[in-house]
Batch of 4 targets.
Target 1
Amino acid sequence: MRTGELHKDYPWARLHALACPVRLDALGEVLEDIRAANGPIDHSAPRPVGNRFIGVSQDAQTVRKLIEQVAPSLATVLITGESGTGKEVVARQIHESSGREGPFVAVNCGAIPEQLLESELFGHERGAFTGAVTARAGRFEQAKGGTFFLDEIGDMPTVMQVKLLRVLEERMVERVGGSKSIPVDVRLIAATHRDLPKRIADGRFREDLYYRLSVFPIEISPLSERPEDLPLLVDEFSRRLVKERGMSLTLSDAAMDAMQQYSWSGNVRELANLVERLAVIRPDSYVDVCDLPWPIVEREETPAELPEVVGHTLAESAGAGVVSLPLDGIDLKQYLANIEQDMIHRALDQSDGVVQRAAEILGVGRTTLVEKIRRYAITPSKTKH
């Protein structure tokens, strides 16, 4: 695409492309793009997870130590870790500890269309493309004297990787439609949840840029590998709710134990969202295990086989309505889960895999049955929705 055609994907032009009748969600997305592309940058705006990397685990202590070591220098930092682990939190803490007086400017490379990314990073001159009625400084220039944070660098198009490498080497940028080189005084921090070495092997990321970015690498472990950090994070999120919204939250020991055993695929971001959700559901009250959503309470594991004596006793005494317990007892929760899973299998077999019919046989709603099929990891190929 030529530079002069950038306007076709410009957010304002997308308003004309909306299909009628206009959907509110589609309109909201366009308006948000317009706000992001044209609105002023609020460098002091608070982030949901705050600006401190919290935790008592060895991994958390290691991350804080690395932050202290690299902050005073100008070394380029590459932060890696799963989505939601707190990569931007680390970047902000590095900036705040660096002593640099300029702003902290963040850009998510995966959230900006490829055709607009160059203009967003490097700026453009007046008349560079249709819609460019005035000259505009790019984010590199806006971060003068401060820190420029490139989030999701692994999603940056290859063409832009070449231009970014040149900026890192020369510390100069050229605006779109311009010919003048503009010096930039920025400290660069990049982050990604992608496996960059794998993307290099696939030809989707430049090896020279990878080594230029990873002068000082920092890897953040997922929350599931540092469960001891969870109570501190819950306390911090609860404290902020009290300060910002006047909502308090107290968790029982049993609820905290259940949360520490959960996998947290969304990491700290998922935890923050859950704390806010619980505060809405149980405002200014005590939260117990029964108040937690089922993925946390019911750990997604394949149920073990029933003890042989219990299986035989159930089958033999079903007609009499009496179940004898083994002398060493049973795990009632696991026992009932196995019964439920067995009944679902039987209902699906009887209904030839038709979920709606199986739900009618079991006397539950279709949505409920679909959720249970997912929970027990019943092979989708055996079901017909």
Target 2
Amino acid sequence: MVGAPASTQNDDTRERRAAAPARPYLFVVLHCDRLLAGSSRHELAGLDTVAIGRGAERTARRGPAGERRLELRFPGSTVSSSHARLERAEAGWTVVDEGSKNGTFVNGERIPRAALRDGDLLEIGSTLLVYRAALPPPSGDAPPDLDSADLAAAPPGLATLIPHHTEQLAALERIARLPIPVLLLGESGTGKEVLARAVHDLSGRPGAFAAVNCGGIAASLLEGQLFGHVKGAFTGAARDEPGFVRAADRGTLFLDEIGDLPLAAQAALLRVLQEREVVPVGGSRPVKVDLRVVAATHRPLDQMSGAGTFRADLLARLAGYRHQLPPLRARREDLGLIVGDLLRRAEVPGADGLRLATAAGRRLFAHGWPLNIRELQQCLTVAAALAPRGVIEAEHLSLAPGAAPGPAVLEPELDDPETLRRTLVALLEQHRGNISYVARDLGKARMQIHRWLRRFNLDPDAFRG
């Protein structure tokens, strides 16, 4: 249904997830010796054994029906022909080293055998893998093994291997093809402009993509920048200028940091969206425009609307469909996929042959990334410039020592008790009652989450299904 409100769509998604039991997954996250090789996801439900060894390329092969076995092969001299295996145990999964030359590591410690816990990082030669004990599966008939090569056709920003993120991005992809305004919510640096460009590309609109940072223009100049001006409208107006709105005619207007737009400009923008016409500064005639608007912010617009600092009627116009971008710390399974995409798009010299020492790979995975993908891109660019012979060591990574995860996008809203309660319920549903992951997404200690749960009489066991 084209006009379905976002809240209804999100409720339907949660109901589908609740009906399907969570499943264990193994993610091949990062090949440290081949940073452009991508990643893969493997569902462990229905298996008893996963055998891991060396091959000419990354492959995943399942045994015949009834054998309940998966064979993973990785290229590289650091992987033994029969390196390690995962075995189903009564309480989960166990990893066993098969006498490999370079050993098998769990969270940086060499082990002969170890029971796996949710989120454990495995090292098989130069390859990093992550075990997830229970993730909500995607709806529909998703393949049990998914390689990032299968996502190559997806526009930048729309590729992920995480099951529930796959579903959210698929919904956004469907919305992108319809004339519905989109509001992108997320922390700074999570890739909102990249996603906005993907929405424009998928829309098929023939006009241009015009991006404006509403917080980066002086208030006195903002209306002229947005709506244009006529020659002589003010001192220095030597010629007519169309402004961002008319530049996006028949295309997409991307309003970044929309929460920073002054109230006077909000009123003028609302009129443009309502009337589909713009009056340039100093002009008297309205000019018709055909716009698709995508807006983005890290600010709590609902709370701002209640406080009167953001117009409720403008918010209603902008929020036809809301999409929440997760912080990078909540997408660790996608780290290799994102690293490869960043190296390609940034055109880092020698990216094809760039390698990471495994210690450096562990540091990338363990870092909190408070500035998200923007921080990762800068870190990789600097490290590539510093790395002799194309090998990035841990000391080449410009990471803040002990940097903890930054605050989640909902942090400014948590002072409101009802918003806090809704946030906790949504995250408990998403993570199946896993307190550690709720704490991670909110940038809080587990103890604080437990305090809030007691305050609102929420039982995490009720969400574990």
Target 3
Amino acid sequence: MGTVAIIFPGQGSQQVGMGKAAHDALPVVAETFAEADEALGFELSKMCFEGPEDQLRMTENTQPAILTTSIALWRALEIPCERLAGHSLGEWTAHVAAGTLPFSAAVKLVRARGRYMQEAVPAGEGAMAAILKAELEVVNEVCATVEGVVEAVNLNAPGQIVIAGATAAVEAAGRALREKGARVAPLPVSAPFHSSLMKPAEERLAADLRDVALNAPCCPVYVNVDAAPVTTADAARDALLRQVSRPVRWTESIQRMIADGTKTFIEVGHGKVLRGLVSRIDRSAQIVNVQGPDDLDAARRVIEENA
């Protein structure tokens, strides 16, 4: 046991129509979306299935939408808990799957998380950019020389890093990195997620999270901020809060899971972003996706083969 890990995607994997096929085919998925609708007090399910896209892309809607879709598919998969991880927002999904916090509480908390992150920096004053074909050391050196706040915040895979911070500083760092041969792509996001500018959002979320009772996770959850597993409620709470204003150390997290014996990753949720990242981190790792009802049996077979 322990050779299979479930991983959950974060913001960016959303798309109008996500979860619809599974909702129509599987009662447990329909029940999960209904539970989210009731907890939030509006039809999140309709927004996921029908849009409009501009509403789904709003951070406070995107975060509960992605969490709900992933948990619905996780429940349909019906497999035992061994080890879990999630990219950024996906870490919250992992903790729901691990029983650390209830689903209904989680969807409300991540909706607030999204709103707090959006409100932490005025519109237009923060930015993010993907940096390709540059090592972390070079990115950090450039960021350190730029005036203003700009930091490496998503360490996604070798040669794939995201920077975030004040708009002018991100643009200046991007120009400097292009001169060093990197590819720079501005990201269509509304705030500098996971940068130190998100500290006000972290503080607001802390007040909300204090009111929710957390349980010890049923299995290790590898957290973004430390690239290490947590096994207690207090450690989970601390990691979820620190994550808001600190880097997502995804490369190290996957490497640690592999070092701890993980051979197969099951990406549960809409899209295949994590499949691509894991493949870049370690080409020998096996990874399969669960995006809809047609993927469930194949994933279960892979899990049985690794049991």
Target 4
Amino acid sequence: MPSDTASPTDVAQPFRLAGHRALVTAGSSGIGRATALALRTQGADVFITGTGKRTAEVAKEIGAAGHAIADFTKPGQAAAAVAQATDALGGLDILFANTGGPKPADFGSLTDADWLAAYHLILGSAIELTHAALPAMTDKGGRVIYLTSVAGVVRPLPGLHLSNVMRAGVAALAASLVSEYGPRGITFNVIAPGPIDTSRRRQIMGFQAKQRGVDLDALEAEELGGIPLRRFGSPDEIGALAVYLASEAAGFITGRVHVVDGGITAV
């Protein structure tokens, strides 16, 4: 990644990422796929991870440089994915650390195994990915972007205990790294989406509808009524923000949580 010091951004194409190399985890569907495609569209070379055979298909569809099958609930697989990406790309400039979400559940029903699995999936994988990726970035700077949620990062949400706790930890990780790696030109930012139209949102709403004993369609209409913009967000909107944060135009932005929720946590 070119140096951020005293280098003006190309005003004609401020978000172009040609020559940049990006790893997007959980990149085979939803927000991860949208982000990988957005980075690729802006010229970045992209490597994605996923958990199933669909990963290879998506990598081919978006013109990715490669892919890896990785289950982040298993320690070591996140670091291995970074090694594979760095080898395939010839280096690494951008890390978009993203995972699926843990199950929604009542607190009393959660077991020690549930908490441990959620740790490895979200916070543990973020630590592992970061630890493995930073050495590839330290000579010339880089971008680390963590995909979290408003759950826990902005405020805890009912029934999302695992996500509330682990994603808050990821945001703390990002903030704690800013001073140490800022002098090396590496930025750390967190994207905290609210109600984005993905299978994860539908899973959570299904749990909430069952918990409250209400119809899913009625609950969805109620949630839409509470969003100032009166719609759910699109994965593409998260991808667009990720492109900006990965670009030279965002070189002076670090240590921030960027909430994308249609205004729902502002009212």
